[in-house]
Amino acid sequence: MAFLRSSLGLKIVMALTGVILFGFVIGHMLGNLQVYLGPEAFNAYAASLRALGHGTLLWVARGGLLIAALLHIWSAWRLTLINNAARPVGYREVERRESTYASRTMRWSGVIVLLFIVYHLMHFTFGVHAVHPYFVHGDAYHNFVTGFQSPLVSGFYVLAMLALGLHLYHGAWSFMQTLGLSHPRYNHLRYAFAGFITLLILAGNISFPVAVLTGLVREQGSADTRTAAHPGVGR
Ligand code: HEM
């Protein structure tokens, strides 16, 4: 326990939970790409997730993700307290070496991603009426399309994805540092790898709202099906 609470222990907890969360974000983006295959494929995919291990496995995965997210936030919080205690008075002049815009904004991007997840769950998972008035339980494709048909909502998703990108970029980079994969000769490879994987996730995730707003992904029938597919919904 004492080791876990030390700076190094906390960094290891943060790195390991970060990898789990990273894995989820990649898997989630790849899974969501199925929206391009049409409503049947996407809804079948969403239903298959819910049915995983007769529904038990989904809850195990959810529990694991929640624990990973809580430990990630806890270690970030503890490390911030330790860093602040080590230097209660700020530097008069800050000379930045080895720090990027992404690394200096880690806390802010983390808070924005956390707020985004709360909003996202109310939007696409729980279907809170005030957040998603056209939500229909069990019709993930319809919820996806009608959710992103609002330019305001889509704009918010894109902004949140940019914050997520900053967070993932520095996260991937510092994970390799914690693992000891650090050598001045190969650092450019670390930057390239972190940049590549972050861009891949961003391209996939940002493509979703853009695809709905441009009409590439839409419900069959009319262009704006916010109420057409399920009359009475959203009123
Ligand atoms: C534009 C990007 C994204 C899209 C289109 C999207 C889409 C969705 C959809 C449709 C669901 C509901 C699935 C269902 O219940 O049938 C969902 C659930 C979820 N999403 Fe996303 N998502 C995106 C980005 C993210 C990101 C970046 C994160 C995390 C950082 C995230 C975390 C989650 C979580 C935790 C759930 C709940 C999973 C569960 O326990 O059922 N999503 N997402």
**Count of discrete domains:** 1
The topology string of helices and strands comes to: HHHHHHHHH
Mean pLDDT: 88
Distance between the termini: 54 Å
Structural class: mainly alpha
Radius of gyration (CA) equals 20 Å
The molecules bound to the chains, other than polymers, are: protoporphyrin IX containing FE
* Main sheet summary: none
Q: How many H/I helical runs?
A: 9
Low-confidence stretches: none
Highest CATH level, the class: Mainly Alpha
Oligomeric state: single chain
CATH topology: 3 helical TM bundles of succinate and fumarate reductases
Helix fraction bin = 55-70%
User: From the coordinates shown, what is the CATH architecture?
Assistant: Up-down Bundle
Shape: globular
Strand content: under 5%
Would you kindly provide a written description of the structure presented here, covering whatever features stand out?
The structure is a single chain. This protein has 235 residues and is an all-alpha fold. It has a single domain (2-88, 98-213), classed as Up-down Bundle (3 helical TM bundles of succinate and fumarate reductases), CATH 1.20.1300. Helix content is 69%, strand content 0%. It is built from 9 helices and no strands. It has helices spanning 2-5, 7-32, 39-50, 56-86, 101-104, 106-125, 140-148, 151-178, 187-213. Helix 2 packs across helix 4 (56-86), helix 2 (7-32) packs parallel to helix 9 (187-213) and helix 6 (106-125) crosses helix 8. The longest helix is centred in the N-terminal third of the chain and has 31 residues, at 56-86. The model has no long low-confidence stretch (mean pLDDT 88). The structure holds protoporphyrin IX containing FE (HEM).
